[in-house]
Structure formats: C-alpha cells, structure tokens
Design goal:
Length: about 525
RNA sequence: GGGCGACUAGCUCAAUGGUAGAGCAGCAGACUCUUAAUCUGGUGGUUCGGGGUUCGAGCCCCCGGUCGCCCA
C-alpha cells in the first residue's frame, strides 16, 4: 500500500532528524532583506544585474519565507520563496551550496517540499532567462509542512475549504491574502481618523446582564461563580453613552458584537461594529462623521479615486449635494439626503404625510406587502415596513434616509419639528444599510417611556424589542450632554471597499456549522 | 424557514444506468538556467453518509450531512 503525501512528509521529518537536521528549530532567523527589499536593491541605478550576472559586490543577502514552487533541473534547483512582501527565486547549485551548517543539496532535493519555511543566505544574481534570484550558499530549514500545500496554479477553489481552513486560502490564494491586508488598512485608517479628530477609543463589556442598543436576539451564556446568565452584547451603544454621561465628550469603540440570527451573505453571527458618539452635536453633524470615516477608509484602498465598483455597480463616493438651504445649520457638501417619507413617496407614490392608518395599511398590502399584526399598529410601523421592504433595496448611490418613525427608534431623540418622528438616519449604498445614527435621546423620563413601549411590544410578540435598562436611565438622569452617535458595520464596509460578495470572505474565520456525521441522524 | 444547485484521487476537474479517468501534487528515475519547468515510469478511490430501485448505480428514488446561490 502506498503512502499518502502527508505520511511521506511526516516520514521526511524523521529522516531529517536522523540526519542531524531539526525540522522545527528554535533559533530566530535574522534576515537582511525582505523579498521586496531585494527587488528594490537590485533595481537601484547602478545596481541592476544583466542576465547571467552575479552581484559583483557579492553582498550577502539573507531572506526567509515559504517555498511555493520547486523546480529540480539536475545539479541545479530553483525554488520560489514567498514572504509577506513579495517573492524571490532561489537558485541552488550543487557545487555552491554548503551542507554544513545548513542543509545539503541532496537533502534539499529529497526532503524539502512546497509549503516548507526556509531561510537562505547568498548573493544576488540574474539568471540567463532574466529572473532576479539569490545564488544560495546556505539554506536552512525553518519549519517543515506535513500536509499537501494548495495547488500552485489553481490554489483552493472550494468556498467551504477556504472558510473552514482559511490558512489554506490565505497561503494559496493571493487575492484572499490581499483582501485581509486591505481590511487591516481600512480598520487602521478608521482608527487613525477618529483619534486625530479627538475621539477616545474605549472598551465596554462584551458580557452584559441586560443587552441593548439594537433590535436583535442575543446569545446567552452563564457565569458560574456569580451564577447568573449573561448576554453577549448586541451593540456597544448604551455603555458608550454612559461614558459620555461621565464626561467623555468624544468616544468610539471598534469591536465585535453578537447577534443570534441567521447566516447569509451579509450576516455573520459575530461582526465588527464601529460606534461613535460626539457631544454637543446633532444628527446632521454625526452624518458628516459617517461620510468622513467612510471616505477616509476608502482612501486607504483607492487613494483619491471616488468612483468605485461593487459587484458590477459603479458607486460614486463624491459628496456633491448641498442642503444648507433646506436644513438650517447643515452646511457643506454631502451624499444624497432624503426623509423616509420622501423616499417612500418617490418610489411608491404613497404620501405618508397625508395617509390615515387604515388607508396606509390597505395601500401597503395592495403593493404586495404582507403586514404582520405588529406592523399594523400605527402609521409609523407601516411607513417603516414599506420603506424597509420596498424602498431600501432601490437606493444604489450613497443615500442617507433621515427622520424615522419613533416606534422603531427607542433610543433616538424626538424630531425638533415633526411629531411622531425622530432625528435619525440610515445610510444605504447598493440597497444595503451601512450606517445608522441619530441625535441621542437624553431625557431620562422620555427614555423610560420608550423602554416601556418596547416592553409592550415584547409582550405583543416582538422578540427583538428593546429590554428595560435601569442603569442606563440612571446614567441619563445624571445628565448626558446633547450628543449624536452613529454606528457602521465594518465588515460590510470592507466588503464594499474590497468588492467582496460575501461577509464570510471579509471575516477571516467566519462562523461555520460544525461537521456532523451524516450516518447518525 | 422555503426553493434551486453542488459534493468523484491531496488539489482542479471529467465520466449515455454498463471496466471510475485526466492534469497538477506526491513517489522512483533523467536533466547545470528553470519559473504552471520538461522527459520516462509507476502509485493513488468508502464517488459526502445511509437506505432503495435495477442483472448492473458516481449517475435514478428516499432519508440525512455540509456548502453555495436566491427568496422570506
């Protein structure tokens, strides 16, 4: 019976040991250059190497990385070495490579494989065919790989393998690796923008006795020593606002939140949220912060380019609308802004400024909407249902929908001039929600009333209704400055900026169902 | 939750209901300039799991599993 590749590789580990070579050495490997730096070095004026020429200065170069390809041509072996910056070819000639210290030619030929990590010392050269290479004098094995490495040409295609074993995806698919590099840059740019704008980054509890700040079902866990059930947070909002009550005028938190809901291409049970709160501001001010953060993040990927492509759709991030005459104090250039009533009217011709509840329900159902009993309780619920299910998906270019019904916004401040509405916005791009924000409700008595209304909804069967939070009301009672806050779904933003269709490919290790044995149902 | 589709060698994929295959990787060998190296030879399978129909099932039917896409 023949051996699998994994068995052969494991056997090579033992062979190396028996030949005095440790496959997993402890010592650090000091490289002199990354592969990218090697390329830069030999592209400097006067340093270029002609084909077939070795560096006349004989500068010693030490690089390390992973073997991604190995081509044995008799007494000469070519290896592609990849590190986090680039790749470089190693040229290993039998007569030039030292076996001690280091690994001998025959051992390189027989015992090293694609996927292994090695360090190489040698001098720069360019092969007869023009490939910049390192003429290796000493090769050191740094770590042996004992299962097959992803195919050099095809990589790993199966989406399930890519997500369950992201390390294979990252190691074998450069576009995946680059996507996560971009994610890191995007997150970093958000952080640096906010810090530069005077916001403090703080950390609030993940384990909470009362969850809140969003309409969602929580994960429940148990604390043994205290013998209490705790919830994983569904949002960071309430604690951040308590920090504002305590005197932090500008705060933000970038962190994981958890929602116990289905998995699809835009929902992962744990995802990264950004929430930002700014004292003495209103929802127009914080709307501008949303634009700034997204544009700053976009610049980390695209530079000055404002036209980006997402799944074949051109998205224009240029801010070109002026609302200073329509809304007092709302200066500058912005993305499109529409009230929810306007957006619904534009798309469906229904004017919720004049509709009565009964007529609104009839009109909504005529448009094909199946309204639940909860949706039929008031005009605000019907308006929101029509918007959410018929209008939101039509908003392709960046659009802020402002002025939401109070019924669906228990934490937002009542509108300064429109009864029944709150000063709230959501940002839509390509039919998907990217951000939510509002002037924060800071009247503790009103907040209690809103929570009580939510409790009534919960009793009426809405399991996503907001629970009562006495600690939060007490914080508001101590006094919270007028302020505005916003949240951005960071994963969705990364999807937009990296043109990625599924949230599971911007979350490095997405939630996957454990594999069960299908023979025992 | 519903519908549609996928699952075959380590990887990427073939295979009218009739002997399970190819390329790459791996293995043995050749080769001093390759780069998806090349050449020669051989190895490699619980066709996702279970059941059924059939003379015969990777393929048809049923149950289950995982994943993907769409819908709610």
């Amino acid at each position: 019976m023949t051996q699998s590749e994994a068995e052969v590789r494991s056997q090579k580990v033992e062979q190396l040991r028996s030949q005095g070579i440790e496959p997993y050495p402890s010592e650090s490997y000091q490289r002199s250059h990354t592969t990218q730096q090697v390329r830069e070095l030999f592209s400097q004026p006067g340093k270029e190497l002609n084909n077939g020429v070795t560096d006349p200065e004989e500068l010693s170069i030490r690089v390390c990385g992973r073997i991604t390809s190995k081509r044995d041509s008799g007494s000469i072996i070519f290896i592609d070495l990849k590190d986090a910056t680039d790749r470089i070819q190693l040229k290993i000639e039998k007569k030039l490579v030292k076996g001690d210290p280091g690994i001998a030619f025959k051992q390189i030929e027989k015992l090293l494989d694609v996927g292994d990590f090695v360090g190489a010392e040698g001098i720069g050269c360019r092969t007869n065919r023009g490939e910049l290479s390192i003429q290796v004098r000493e090769l050191k094995l740094l770590s042996k790989a004992t299962i097959p490495f992803p195919d050099a040409y095809y990589g790993v295609n199966d989406p399930e393998t890519c997500r369950r074993h992201r390390e294979m995806d990252l190691a074998g698919n450069p576009e995946s690796f680059n996507r996560f590099v971009l994610r890191s840059r995007i997150v970093q740019s958000i952080r640096s923008y906010l810090c530069d704008a005077g916001f403090y980054e703080i950390e609030t509890p993940v384990l909470q006795a009362i969850y809140g700040g969003a309409a969602a079902r929580p994960f429940i866990t148990h604390h043994n020593a205290l013998d209490v059930d705790l919830y994983l947070r569904i949002a960071t909002e309430l604690f951040l606002k308590r920090a504002v009550c305590g005197g932090f005028e500008r705060v933000f938190e970038l962190g994981r939140v958890f929602r116990n809901e289905g998995v699809d291409s835009t929902h992962n049970p744990e995802f990264t949220s950004l929430e930002v709160y700014q004292s003495y501001a209103d929802y127009f001010d914080i709307l501008g912060v949303v634009e700034d953060v997204i544009c700053f993040a976009a610049a980390a990927v695209f530079g000055d380019k404002k036209q980006i492509e997402y799944q074949g759709q051109l998205i224009n991030l240029d801010r070109q609308y002026d609302y200073s005459e329509k809304y007092a104090g709302f200066s500058g250039k912005h993305w499109q802004v529409k009230t929810m009533v306007e957006a619904v009217k534009d798309e469906t011709k229904l004017d919720f400024d004049v509709l009565e509840l009964g007529d609104a329900i009839a009109a909504a159902e005529k448009l094909g909407l199946h309204l639940a009993n909860l949706d039929k309780q008031s005009l605000g619920y019907v308006l929101y249902a029509v918007f959410d299910r018929l209008v939101a998906s039509t908003l392709i270019q960046p659009t802020f929908i402002i002025d939401f019904p109070v019924e669906v916004s228990p934490l937002a401040k009542g509108h300064r001039s429109k009864p029944g509405f709150v000063e709230r916005f959501e940002l839509f791009i390509n039919g998907t929600e990217y951000s939510n924000g509002f002037s924060e409700l800071n009247d503790p008595k009103e907040q209690r009333k809103r929570f009580e209304e939510q409790l009534a909804q919960k009793n009426a069967g809405d399991d996503e209704a907001h629970p009562m939070d006495e600690d939060f009301i007490e914080a508001l009672s101590l006094g919270m400055p007028n302020c505005a806050g916003m949240g951005i779904g960071v994963d969705r933003l990364v999807m937009l900026l990296t043109n990625t269709q599924s949230i599971r490919d911007v979350v490095m290790f997405p939630t996957m169902r454990p594999i069960k044995d299908g023979s025992n149902p």
